[in-house]
Amino acid sequence: MTKKRIFVIHTGGTISMEEDKQSGVVKPSYENPLHSFHHLLSETTDIFSAAPFHLPSPHITPKEMLGLKQLLEETYNNEPFDGAVITHGTDTLEETAYFLDLTLELDVPVVVTGAMRSNNEIGSDGLYNFISAVRVASCDEAKGKGVLVVLNDEIHSADNATKTHTSNISTFHSPQYGPLGIITKKKIIFQREPIHQAKLPVTAVDKQVALIKAYAGMDSSLLTFLANTHYDGVVIEALGQGNLPPAALPAVKELIDKDIPVVLVSRCFNGIVQDTYEYEGGGRQLKELGVIFSNGLNGQKARLKLLIALSSPDTGDKMENIFNQ
Ligand code: ASP
Enzyme group, top EC level (predicted)? Predict the structure, then answer.
């Protein structure tokens, strides 16, 4: 059997941290503990690695995400690999995975993984998830399925996976659709195919996009503030099928009048936003105002999509189509 050549990028997160046994706090460790386990995979894979930065994932910004895309593509052009694994903190893992899914021009499996318990904690899931991720990245069926998120014996698509629990190791789920596949002791089993989406070109990520959650009694103040500062776009996690309190409408109108796109997602975990309701603040009215309805993404992913689309030179009037995909 020829060995698969796997490129591993370590970026930080709990998977590379240790617990202080005295205080119980978890912090970055000097030496990434996963490095010493690459040999466990040496029978089937030939691993080479890079660590472009070492950050807890709340420190990661779209600039690091763009850096990862460029590192993957440049490395592939210089020394082609069969698959790639990125280890990452779980707090923003879904955002990095989705950013790469939207922008990466690579024809090999790319898998993002992390851990909920640090390296020296009882029941640590880091090494197990890392080995699972390398197995998936080495698997021929993982090709052409977009960027994948692998933790806790499950394979998720980057556009659906989301962190649902603050501490449980079974934190990543794909609401509404379920995982793409599972990992067993002997097999990698895919149960469904993800929908392919068009790639968005990206060379810079310097636009400012805000994410605001709607709530009962919301008024226009926060949105008006955004309309009058340096924001280039706004994503609103709306109520239910895509409705807002009437008092928020004047600011939505102000944003659109200033050519600042407003994208609507739902604060519900399942379902999509639609222009169903015809009352003050209802979806029908928002659509007529020019609000863009997103097709099932959560707020943090719609925010990244809008950021990338705004940075792209040829988005123009295609914004609505981009969020329909
Ligand atoms: N706070 C950590 C991080 O995202 C959590 C983790 O890695 O699981 O870096």
Answer: hydrolase
